[in-house]
Amino acid sequence: MTGSSVSPVGSVASVVVVGGGIAGVSTVAELRKNGYAGELTLLSADPLPYDRPPLSKEYLAGSRDLDSLALQPAEWYAEQQVTLVGGAVAAALQPDAGEVELADGRVLSADRIVLATGGRAVRPPIGSPIHVLRDVADADSLRTRLVAGARLLIVGGGLIGAEVASTARGLGAEVTLVDPLDPPLAAAVGIEVASWLHGLHGSHGVETLSTTVETVLETSAGVAVQLRGEPDSRVFDTVLVAVGLAPETSLAEAAGLETSRGVLVDADQVTSHPTVLAVGDCARPRGHHRAEHWEAAQHDGARAAATILGLERAAVTAPWWWSDRYGLHVEGVGEMRIADAEHEVVVRGVVGEPPFSVFTLRGERVIGAVAVDDPNAVRAARRMIDRGVAVCGSDLGDPGVSLRKMLRGLG
Amino acid sequence: MTGNSEGIRVASLDDIPEGEGVAISSDITGTDDDIAILRDDDGTCWALNDTCTHETASLAEGWVEDGDVECPLHSSRFNLKTGKVDGLPATRDTVPHRVEVRDGEVYLFPGERP
Ligand SMILES: Cc1cc2nc3c(=O)[nH]c(=O)nc-3n(C[C@H](O)[C@H](O)[C@H](O)COP(=O)(O)OP(=O)(O)OC[C@H]3O[C@@H](n4cnc5c(N)ncnc54)[C@H](O)[C@@H]3O)c2cc1C
Ligand code: FES
pTM higher than 0.90, yes or no? Predict the structure, then answer.
């Protein structure tokens, strides 16, 4: 259908995308790539949309600067005939009228509105001062505090908390990490890999505690933190809370769209209003969890563009993510389970001796995989999942058997 | 090492499994960057600058399939023939080089377009 000379949905002549993250930028890119020739506006709270993953990694470490984080170079928007409105904050939506009102009073109208507003870091009510990490301003204020010898408490040992622990150690800070889960991330990577990953903190000089924070208080000696189960409070210079994301649904809610832990969307990214779509971290597909990963946001954008253009949507692929800590590259795809009557867990290599990978199988089908320093194992697993390739667990666990051959059914 | 008119012999075809690649050092290629020799799943050989235009991954360690190589770090895809990037986070195309396979040996012509 791409490349057909008549636009399949002739009625769509203008699209406004609210939010310049990977989801919003992917939406406009995919619209143009698939031949959309109408008006296209991207409202971005930031002057130039930038990429978030480096904020806990290279940007926080100081090895990449803000310019290098741009999702697209500034001139790309003009080339693509996208009106990028930098510094624009949408204040209200009128779905029936197809209008977006900006905080500065301007009103834009469009045939389709795409919400790509992402989310905010959750700030639990434990007192202050606490830092969070979601945007460049957060990263900048955290970075100035990560000097050699600074005492940093990280609350939350998930992907972002662990990445910051690694980066902060690289900068010479003293790091303590608390999480009530021991180990964190078991649901994402499986218990064995989660335990090993969490143990890396200790071997890199990070103190890990399995508890929660009750209160945070500013004192003359520093930030006093009371941990559950400890008799006295401890003093830190900085507290970073990395306990999750609150989807930015306020525009949608005020406009009467259905929301519940995200703006609810169908498989085509359409909200409860037929001319409003939602993509990325702000959206939740009915009956599913929010993915909260970079590639999922990108795919949402592609799907929204296909919906607007009346094109067939691309097949859904198993969700994929990456994360880096202590110089190791971790990737995951699909879902990981513990071994039980229905599921088999297969290790390829040795957990703790990268490169290695771990697969979850249901019957003969791979449903998920995690790899450390072995990205092609995850690329193979992803294709096995997406193509429903039947595999044999003992082959999968034998590093001498080529995954590419197994994928082609030659294993 | 042979002269440029015949190309530089850089590998035996048998040493590069289909779907994989090998990196050839810039000491050998005489180029700024190392060059990745990439073997598509149909058996054909291609060459691109080795360093991903996004960060520092080696494309020789990427996943080669259907005319593209997928970066091993953040999965941007580059066309094996043209070096064109398809998909963020990389935004810049990479440089393709010509390769020729003769008698099971791979010859590289650094700086020449395929
Ligand atoms: C520190 C950090 C590290 C990460 N690392 C990884 C990683 O290694 N791998 C991975 O897979 N994922 C990672 N992620 C997750 C990934 O970055 C997110 O899933 C992704 O950014 C989601 O994209 P998005 O476009 O939906 O939302 P966002 O990136 O949040 O973009 C939404 C944009 O909308 C703007 N906005 C909100 N409301 C309005 C409004 N009313 N008007 C105008 N603009 C508005 C916001 O300011 C923001 O710029 C990381 C996230 C963070 C924070
Ligand atoms: S280094 Fe290749 S996509 Fe990031």
Answer: yes
